Amino acid sequence: MKQKLLLFLLCCICTVGAAAQGIITRQKPTTQQQTQRKPKTTTQSKPKPRSNTPTQTRPQSQPAQGSSSSQGGNKTFTANGVSFTMIYVQGGTFTMGATSEQGSDVESDEKPAHSVTLSSYYIGETEVTQALWQAVMGSNPSNFTGDSRLPVEQVSWEDCQTFISRLNSLTGQHFRLPTEAQWEFAARGGNRSRGYKYSGSNDIGSVAWYTDNSGSKTHPVKTKSPNELGIYDMSGNVWEWCQDWYGDYSSSSLTNPTGASSGSYRVIRGGSWNYIARSCRSSNRYNFTPSFRNNNLGLRLAL
Fold it and tell me: Which pLDDT score is estimated for 69?
């Protein structure tokens, strides 16, 4: 009996020892294990798309001297902080001169009407403003002032060449005056022409500042309705210099004509604030010497 009791006690002691050993081997992590941190998990967002815009080297409020952008075929340029838009004119063929809608107002130098074919080009959405002239030339020769959107005037053909040369240096472009044929094609609405007498309408008052509504002064550009191409003030406000020497028309069909080979007078087009409606027709022609300046004489760019 005693032997069985001793054997039972011995078995109990062995069981307790094994349990204790299990407790010892399942202890908590060491201090070093407790303080060891898992690597920090960072939520990675998708990389942002790289902007196509080059890094600005100057504040946006101080744009580069010359820059450009395009939209819908037209192009916008900036020169010394002043922006202006050039309208795309798709090339085509038209009848230049004394067409039927011009009626009895036609002058002899608008004859004979003749076919002209032009390649595509750009022409100013507006006449050159005093703001742009000032930005490029550093001065404003105009008689009528008070609003930078007024067309520049009192500029000769020669002055225009100086202005264009400086503008080209600023922008890296090849601006120029339009040829007389380019001017008339654009004034008539190009390939979208509806055959109006004036640039954009048969109602001159809706598209032009002229002697009957101008109040004896120029007006800010884009304050009348545009023509079929979205071009403003091609009738009225100020006369506009063209590149050509003034000369007689020929009945021959022409392609990209540039006017007479020589002469004493340069072509001007469009009429102005102090001229009657007859002078503001799309086919009307006039001319002055290249050095002439007047407060009704400005310019429109071509490219």
Answer: 65
The reply to whether 94 falls in a domain is yes
**Alpha-carbon distance values, 55 to 52, 59, 65, 80 (Å):** 9, 11, 16, 19
At residue 292, φ and ψ (nearest 5 deg) are -75, 140
- Count CB-CB contacts under 10 A for residue 57: 6
- The ranges of the chain with pLDDT < 50 are 1-64
- The pLDDT, as a whole number, for residue 67 is 62
Q: What is the pTM of this model?
A: 0.78
Backbone angles phi, psi at 131, to 5 degrees: -65, -45
Write the DSSP assignment of 61-96 as a string of letters: TS--SEEEEEETTEEEEEETTEEEEEEEE--EEEEE
Cα R_g (the chain), whole angstroms: 39
What length does the chain have?
303
Query: 108 and 117 in contact (C-beta within 8 Å)?
Result: no
Q: How many domains does the chain have?
A: 1
Tokens of 300: 């429109």
Residues with Cβ within 8 Å of residue 268, at least 6 apart in sequence:
239, 240, 241, 242, 286, 287, 288, 297
pLDDT recorded at residue 186:
98
Write the Ramachandran bin of 184: left for phi over 0, alpha for psi from -120 to 50, otherwise beta: alpha
In a domain, 60, yes or no: no
Cα separation, 227 vs 156, whole angstroms: 26
pLDDT number for residue 68: 64
**CATH number of the domain to which 216 belongs:** 3.90.1580.10
The pLDDT, as a whole number, for residue 71 is 61
CA 178 to centroid of chain Cα atoms: 17
Retrieve residue 164's tokens.
């264009």
